[in-house]
Amino acid sequence: MSFEYAPALDGDYPSVDLDILLGRLHQGVPTDAVLHAPEDLRPYECDGLAAYRQVPLAVVLPDSIEQVQHVMRICHQMRVPVVARGAGTGLSGGALPLNQGVLLSLTKFNRILHIDPLNRLARVQTGVRNLAISQAANPHGLYYAPDPSSQIACTIGGNVAENAGGVHCLKYGLTANNILALEVVTMEGERVSLGAEALDAAGYDMLALMTGSEGMLGVIVEVMVKLLPTPQVARVLMASYADVGKAGEAVGEIIAAGIIPGGLEMMDNPAIRAAEDFLHAGYPVEAAAILLCELDGTEEEVSDGIQRVHDILIASGATEVRVSASESERQMFWAGRKNAFPAVGRLSPDYYCIDGTIPRRELPGVLKAIAALSEEFGLRVANVFHAGDGNLHPLILFDANVSGELEKAEQLGARILELCVQVGGTITGEHGVGIEKIHEMCIQFRPLELEQFHAVKAAFDPQRLLNPGKAVPTLARCAEFGAMHVHNGQLPFPELERF
Amino acid sequence: MTLQLCVKAHYFRDASRFLTLYVGSTRAVHDQFGGACRGEILEHELLGNVSYEPTELVITARCGTPLSDLEAALAERDQMLVFEPPHLGVDATVGGTVACGLSGPRRPFAGAVRDTVLGVKLINGQGEALTFGGQVMKNVAGYDLSRVMCGALGTLGVILEASFKVLPKPSIEATRRIESTLPEAIDRMNRWAGQPLPLSAACHDGEALYLRLSGAESAVHAGERKLGGDAVADGQRYWAELREQQHPFFGGDEPLWRLAVRSGAPQPDLPGRWIVDWCGGQRWLRTDAPASRIRAEAQALGGHAQCFRGGDREADVFHPLPDALMGLHRSLKAALDPKGILNPGRLYRDL
Ligand SMILES: Cc1cc2nc3c(=O)[nH]c(=O)nc-3n(C[C@H](O)[C@H](O)[C@H](O)COP(=O)(O)OP(=O)(O)OC[C@H]3O[C@@H](n4cnc5c(N)ncnc54)[C@H](O)[C@@H]3O)c2cc1C
Asked: By the 8 A CB rule, do B144 and B45 touch?
């Protein structure tokens, strides 16, 4: 494993007496809401990035804001680090516990507090599942737009903490664009409201800062989300290509024609085959790539749009274009994409999901480079791609039981992320840095920016008790990593200006 | 140029002197709606679009680039900034647009400045040139300091360059005028906004309800039939005048207040004349009523009030924040500008 929490690099905390800690926690939280027996801690030892495991000192499951405040006050006083956890579906190890820390599970915060159809908003507790919001809004003809593939399980609080996206975010935006307000408990146990029902709240955009902050700045306990009118209709086109580059170009052409599809996704041949094996959705297993393009809106605009996109796809060299004729067929077309991860998971004992973003024009080159790396490392890679917004998810297949394969998979993943940075992209589009990409942060940012991030962190949590070791590497960690990482005697990106 | 600015910011930090930031002549706008500001003026020019990739839907420009130049470049490729930024004068710049964080009539339907900013380069109060975010649509590496610059009125950093997500212009737009009282209009526009209609603006200007539809021709026509009312021949001009505060409502010296409230909220009980824009979310008020009363009313409706023009510029013009939140503001300000040299007092008196 390339990451291990290192007190010398990531921060040191006084050792705590568990009995004293438990005693003080119990003053404000019921006994059965605090877990500390080893067998009770086990289920919390990892999130969706299961290669990293660590049991915490204790798990606390509060069910009121007052209880969260109590836990935070005690931990603050005793200098015990706190890691917040939603559903634990995160893919970057953001919710990985610390052996000296408290894991704060927010799953009991599962109530939808208010749906306001006139103002098109919903107020929900942090542990409400993403999909549950749309289900509750559905009778009013409304829905919550961001739809991560994990939406049946992941929590809205986790979505905010990661700024989660979904297949519809090119048109409807990410979590950041679809929330209005948050209730947050600070490390000191203070409750603050950020944002408002009214647009563009007074003062600094704290809502933006909290979104995507990976549990480093505060604990989210309540979220107010925007709801949108459910589109009248949605239809999907599925286009097959004999050449990945052509599929990539087609994406640019759709956008150049002034069309912003509701969803625009691409899968390469290994991903298509895996999905077809798994679901029998009628995917073209011979194609080098498929594009899924969804148009939504009123009846009129969707039927116009389908015709236009159809023509563009044909002109761009698609070998076959199919249009969903019914809602069930639309669901079928999507099923393969939405289940791409588990489908690929069946091909191999383990897979490792990478999450880089690139300028879309770089796609053909990047895919070629990934294929070359795949060969170099001797590991298969299947690619799924949020093509509309350049977010690439290469899935690296490996077998953790074969000694050295996990490390190889991680090295291959790291090389892919470096490639993303090199072509002007970023190391994470939606899964977050967590611990997984902590070293790649040293490549993406210079020390000055990292120091600025630490200063911002200190503004909220001066003692660095919230989720330490995650998201932003210390300069000490980067120095350690840098020492191992000078390529061919060169600093990464010598062409960049350094101040 | 960047280097010179860094050196200057450094110098001011060490000398504990203050800087007031203007880019081009966004000055007029800043002075209009921000709080009175003390300090020596830092004018800088950094002109030009840095890069524009229409099929990537991203444009990057230096802070001094006139907003109209950026918009012209986009228009050439049938694209636009969706937040429809107000210029409020002829010389609005890209940096000023980000710093002011103001959005036009499309705001409730398409998002604000902060929803389209993908990345910024800036100089913080330590005189350090920093880059956050990038030129790609999705990026969650590090804290989102680019968005935080939006509406911060230059109190956290000197914006040098910004990248925006852009979108295609709608194929057509149409505006409808519907006779209606203000309370009726607020209810109607919110009900329509909850339906799958291609709405892109909704305003009651004291006389009638105006609605704009944007998108594919077929959808816009179907929407027009559904909304009823009368077609407005020169809709584009109507919305531009509203955005630029050239509507007769905005003339005169009476204090101009901006109330942001829950969009479907009933009208606050305040004396004066109103324009209700943003589907009810942004309500302009001309009144001499005392600030405390206006603020209490706005707050009761889930929102906040800002004395946009006129009135007492020495008092806080923005809505006061609760203590805990103000505390976080002070710490964040200190994290980016520890000596407090950047635009002191512009946003809040003690920031
Ligand atoms: C099969 C699969 C598919 C996925 N598809 C997508 C996708 O399409 N798009 C996408 O964006 N992601 C996707 N993900 C990743 C993951 O689902 C998201 O990151 C999700 O937002 C995590 O939510 P969670 O509730 O599981 O959070 P967790 O994993 O529990 O936590 C994630 C991070 O948020 C912090 N956190 C959680 N709750 C809070 C809180 N209340 N306050 C403060 N911090 C908190 C944690 O400390 C941690 O750092 C996928 C994951 C899986 C397993």
From this structure: no
Whose tokens are 């919110």? That residue is B190
Going by C-alpha positions, the residue among A221, A322, A336 that lies closest to residue A269 is A336
Nearest to A427 among B141, B265, B332 (CB): B141
Element (H, E) at A418: helix A405-422
Find, among A261, A352, A427, the residue nearest to A1 by Cα.
A352
Please tell me the distance from the alpha carbon of residue B349 to that of residue B351, in angstroms, as a whole number.
6
Decide: residue A335, CB within 10 A, 0-12 exposed, 13-18 middle, 19+ buried: middle
Question: Which CATH entry fits the domain spanning B2-168: 3.30.460.80, 3.30.450.40, 3.40.50.970, 3.30.465.10?
Answer: 3.30.465.10
Cβ of B254: how many Cβ atoms within 10 Å?
Answer: 15
Helices A244-256, A299-315: axis angle to 10 degrees equals 140
* Number of domains making up chain A: 4
DSSP string, A78-110: HT--EEEESSS--SSSTT---TTSEEEE-TT--
Position of tokens 């802070």?
B63
Last residue of a domain, one of A205, A229, A253: A229
Q: Which atom, in ligand 1's list, is nearest to the CA of A174?
A: 11
Q: How far is A368 from chain B (nearest CA, A)?
A: 20
CA of A64 to the centre of ligand 1 (A): 21
pTM here is 0.95
Distance CA B36, CA B315 (A): 8
Domain end, chosen from A229, A244, A273, is at A229
Helix%, strand%, coil% for chain A, nearest 5: 40, 20, 40
B303 exposure class (CB count in 10 Å sphere: 0-12, 13-18, 19+) = buried
Buried b (16+ CB within 10 A) or exposed e, B170-179: bbebbbbbbe
Residues shown for chain A: 499
Nearby residues of B91 by Cβ (< 8 Å), 6 or more positions away: B24, B25, B26, B28, B66
- Collect all residues of chain A within an 8 Å Cβ-Cβ radius of residue B150: 205, 208
- Sheet with B158-165: strands ordered across: B49-53, B58-62, B158-165, B117-123, B129-133
- B256: Cβ–Cβ under 8 A, 6 or more apart, which residues? B250, B284, B285, B286, B307, B308, B309, B310
Measured between beta carbons, which residues in chain B are less than 8 angstroms from residue A362?
none
Q: Do B141 and A433 touch (CB under 8 A)?
A: yes
- Number of Cα atoms under 13 Å in the Cβ half of residue A367: 25
How big is the CA angle at A139 (ends A136 and A143), to the nearest 5 degrees? 60
Partner-chain residue, chosen from B143, B194, B321, that has the shortest CB–CB distance to A453: B143
CB contact under 8 A, A192 and B322: yes
- Tens-binned pLDDT, residue by residue, of chain B (351 aa): 677 777 777 777 777 777 777 654 455 555 566 776 666 777 666 777 779 989 999 999 999 899 999 999 999 999 999 999 999 987 889 999 999 999 999 999 999 999 999 999 999 999 999 999 989 989 999 999 999 999 999 999 999 999 999 999 999 999 999 999 999 999 999 999 999 999 999 999 999 999 999 999 999 999 999 999 999 999 999 999 999 999 999 999 999 999 999 999 999 999 999 999 999 999 999 999 999 999 999 999 999 999 999 988 888 889 999 999 999 999 999 999 999 999 998 899 888
Q: Is A462 helix (H, G, I), strand (E, B) or coil?
A: coil
* Cross-chain Cβ contact B150/A205 below 8 Å: yes
Segments forming the whole domain that contains residue A379:
349-437
Q: Class of the B248-309 domain?
A: alpha beta
Structure tokens at B251: 């003339």
